[in-house]
Specification:
mainly alpha; globular; MetI-like fold
Amino acid sequence: MRGPGRWAVLAALVMLAVVMVFPFLIVALNAVKSPEEYSSEGPLSLPDGLYLQGIADFWNRVDFGEKLVNSLLISGSVAVLAVVLSVLNAYALGIGRVRGRLSILVLFLVANTLPQEALAYPLYYLAKELGLYDTRLSMIIIFTVIQAAFGTYLLSAVLGQFPREILEAAEIDGAGRFRALTRIVVPISRPTLSVLMIFFFIWTWNEFFLPLIFLISNDNQTVPVALGVLQGERYMDATMSSASALLGIVPAVVFFLIFQRTLTRGITVGAVK
């Protein structure tokens, strides 16, 4: 691409970067300001120094360490379990070609498009009946199923194009279906599975509506729920609000940066080499 078109694309990318980074910078700047400095100089001024008392006050007020552990436990468990369940389902639908495959895939797609508001009461009633209400296990089970619905739909299309010659050769060598899955399909599909795991983690980390309903105890709440509940209280100043937003964003950003190379490789390489 040459000439004006190239500069237009470059300008669009710069604008996109500014739009995405600018709010984060504003939050970070105000998180390290004192309330007096924020009131006198405004939200766009540079801080004179690092005022970390707002971050410390917020951390202690909501017991942020406990909320962080809850979010990591729920999001990490869902990411791993949803990928495993998606692989097993997609292996049967994409490679096994079970009867009614198209109808099952449509069912998974419809389930994935249902709003969480429509799922709230049935899931609430079921959790109450099973004694899982207000437990982290309930969130792990619910979000594992929700994320696996999308993962199954995606992986079924991917594994449907899997080279049959490789599986036939493995069958001739005496490999059963489970061994072919673990020794051939999963290693070859690892880039796609890695991408799914990263997205499942981030999506679950950012969930707010269902955890707000199901995790009513302070000891079980996740980071987004703690932020939402505290933001609704009137005794927080602007700098503490920024500190809470910064602490809520940083773990997800760190996770994304750690696995950025894996994500890029997975998108570039694809599922089948």
